[in-house]
Specification:
Number of strands: 21
Shape: globular
Number of helices: 22
Helix content: 25-40%
Largest sheet: 7 strands, mixed
Bound molecules: NADPH dihydro-nicotinamide-adenine-dinucleotide phosphate
Length: 610
């Protein structure tokens, strides 16, 4: 079998060609040291308090409704792709009584909130948009616009009749297990006190907008918003541009991560002046977006999407494939991604040799990224500032054929803040960096999201299980689950997300597998008449040990990286929360478990058994 492996067959001499290893190591270390801040993750603040308007839904008016007091069979908390696919699979399994619930005004999750100009998926849409074959339709482009993705989420809800009984603009404030009734009592911020036999949480991992704790940020009197709450009433236009109200405005964009890279070229086109406040440059590789070829789309055979998704996942997880079906910036750098995303390890070479090859491949990749900056950006000083000096997976890689080009426009200025750890302060009408002051009309924060904060882990959604024990107590020393899905003492409660299971850059695929698994377990429980679904304490212990023992040893790599949310701003956790052998192996393990051990979590109450 021929395998696609970017390193096999390449001589070490060639890998090392043109790479000054010692100089690059020294440069990366110096840049990391320049960027590290003693306050780490504490430099950020949630977008609440006087900035509470960031949390307001600008897209859908909140409608009054009576509090709910009814009971449903399944409550799904979260109407993003994770919740939607779970709802769809449960419907397919014949479950009628499903209530979807979300804090947003409609389905879509990330794609509901994020509607900034230029928004697109950065994973190929044919493997990113779930259930394309079941729902019908084909993305218009290889990397589809955000609005199209949001509408696909709505189409999933319509196809599987998930609007029936759905409630929006509703946040769960309390979940309490009622032992006698064998169901959850659910309280919300709308005064609801309803009941659900099964509760599934899919509330996302990058959802709460965060702002830098810049001194004086509250005193700014101009206009300001976070990219995930784009204010089109101020800018004019829509996701595709024409931000005509910015024509006489001096606009600041703070942040140059995956969001900033998409937003900046759009604002550059329409603002009178754009100041880009950068702290760490992203790696910006070729995007090569293009319209979907109708002939190709017509030629696809049933089952094509699952095959393509699995092909993508296998490649970025280090598993052999016969052919690269995707051939883009993600699959061509698969080897480098395993520095942070777990996966299969090539044991044909020693760990030292593997690390040597990985580092050389990394240096070459980053050299090409830096060379691209010189090719595109005309002003040499600006080009210098836009070059990233760190290993490829220290930050989420980005792709754009417009971002670097934007800095050739006369109305665009790059302001580097790295020497000062970011913006120094803000005044009522300006941003100050060191001694330099920049007056602006509007500040747009492309400063990202709190990481891994779901209501369950933050305590915003308190959960009280059997015997009055809270989930936060049970997880006091870290999450404790079987396979990431459920915990002992918390019957009929399922989690989708990234804790104690597998992870990948195409997180929607991960969510789909989780949805399939949860739906299969619930369906089996119905078939055999189980009262509740809950792992035994020993099974949970064993899984926690497995996660720990197989945790990939990438702490050194992470610690040497430039700070960012990937390494908790320079303080990486001691062990990974993911299944070390990677997502493909994890999905294999789940499949086997469903065949052989599923009955272990299906319980029947004693009194009903009698
Ligand atoms: P990030 O956290 O990646 O970026 C935040 C940016 O704000 C960084 O450039 C950061 O600089 C900068 N910043 C923070 N504080 C300051 C400060 N005090 N002064 C100056 N600059 C500051 O957030 P994003 O929203 O860009 O991306 C988050 C994630 O969302 C992505 O990694 C990706 O997973 C996802 N995403 C996916 C997209 C898709 O198409 N699928 C599109 C957009 C986002 P520094 O790097 O120095 O910390």
């Amino acid at each position: 079998m021929s395998t696609h492996n970017p390193v096999q067959g390449v001589s070490n001499e060639l890998l090392g060609e043109g790479v000054d290893v010692d100089a690059l190591r020294a440069k990366y270390k110096a840049e990391r040291d320049r960027r590290i801040r003693p306050d780490g993750a504490a430099q950020y603040q949630p977008a609440t308090g006087s900035f509470g308007y960031y949390a307001v839904d600008p897209y859908t008016e909140r409608a009054d409704r009576e509090p709910l007091t009814d009971a449903v069979e399944v409550l799904v908390i979260g109407g993003g792709f994770g919740g939607l696919v779970t709802g769809a699979r449960l419907r397919q399994a014949g479950i009628e009584d499903i209530r979807m619930m979300d804090e947003a005004g409609d389905f879509g999750g990330t794609w509901y909130w994020n509607r900034y100009p230029g928004i697109r998926c950065d994973i190929e849409s044919y493997v990113y948009l779930p259930l394309l074959e079941e729902v019908g339709g084909m993305p218009s482009e290889r990397y589809a616009p955000g609005e199209e993705i949001r509408q696909h989420a709505v189409a999933i809800a319509r196809t599987f009749d998930l609007y029936r009984d759905a409630v929006f603009h509703t946040r769960v404030t309390n979940l309490m297990w009622d032992e006698d009734a064998v169901e959850w009592v659910v309280e919300t911020d709308r005064g609801d006190r309803m009941r659900a036999r099964q509760v599934i949480t899919s509330s996302g991992t990058l959802t709460q907008p965060k702002l830098p704790g810049i001194p004086g940020i509250d005193s700014f009197e101009g206009h300001t918003f976070h990219t995930s709450r784009w204010d089109y009433s101020y800018t004019g236009g829509d996701q595709f541009g024409n931000l005509n109200k910015l024509a006489d405005k001096k606009v600041a964009v703070v942040g140059t991560g995956a969001t900033g890279i998409q937003v900046i070229p759009m604002v550059a086109r329409d603002a009178e002046q754009l100041l880009v406040f950068q702290r760490t440059p992203s790696s910006v590789d070729v995007r090569d977006n293009r319209p979907t070829d109708p002939e190709w789309a017509a030629s696809l055979q049933p089952g094509w999407q699952q095959e393509r998704m699995e092909n993508f996942l296998a490649q970025v997880s280090g598993e052999p494939v016969e052919q690269d079906l995707i051939q883009d910036g993600w699959t061509s750098t698969a080897q480098l991604q395993r520095k942070v995303v777990s996966g299969a390890v090539d044991t044909s070479v020693s760990p030292e040799e593997r690390e040597r090859i990985d580092e050389l491949v990394d240096f070459r990749k980053m050299n090409s990224i830096r060379a691209r900056v010189d090719e595109v950006v005309k002003d040499p000083a600006t080009a210098q500032l836009l070059k990233p000096w760190y290993r490829y997976m220290c930050k989420r890689p980005t792709f754009s054929d417009f971002y670097l080009e934007a800095f050739n426009r006369p109305n665009v200025t790059l302001v580097d803040t790295a020497d000062f750890g970011g913006i120094t302060r803000m005044t009522e009408n300006s941003i100050v960096v060191g001694d330099a002051e920049y007056e602006v009309d509007c500040v747009i924060f492309a400063t990202g999201f709190e990481v891994g904060v779901s209501g369950v882990t933050s305590g915003a959604m308190p959960v009280t299980g059997r015997g009055g024990r809270t989930l936060l107590e049970a997880w006091g020393r870290g999450p404790r689950t079987l396979h990431g899905f459920y915990s002992h003492g918390f019957p009929n409660l399922f989690h989708l997300g990234s804790l104690q299971n597998a992870n990948s850059v195409n997180f929607v695929h991960i969510l789909m597998e989780q949805a399939n698994h949860i739906a299969a377990v619930i369906t089996k429980g119905r078939e055999v008449g189980a009262d509740f679904i809950e792992p035994a304490a020993e099974a949970e212990d064993q899984w926690c040990r497995t996660i720990q023992e197989l945790s990939p040893n990438n702490r050194k790599f992470q610690a040497e990286c430039t700070p960012g949310y990937y390494n908790r701003e320079g303080n990486p956790p001691p062990v990974s929360f993911s299944y070390g052998p990677g997502p493909v192996a994890f999905h294999r393990l789940l499949k086997k478990w469903r065949r052989e051990e599923i009955q272990d979590v299906l319980a029947v109450k004693e009194r009903q058994r009698a």
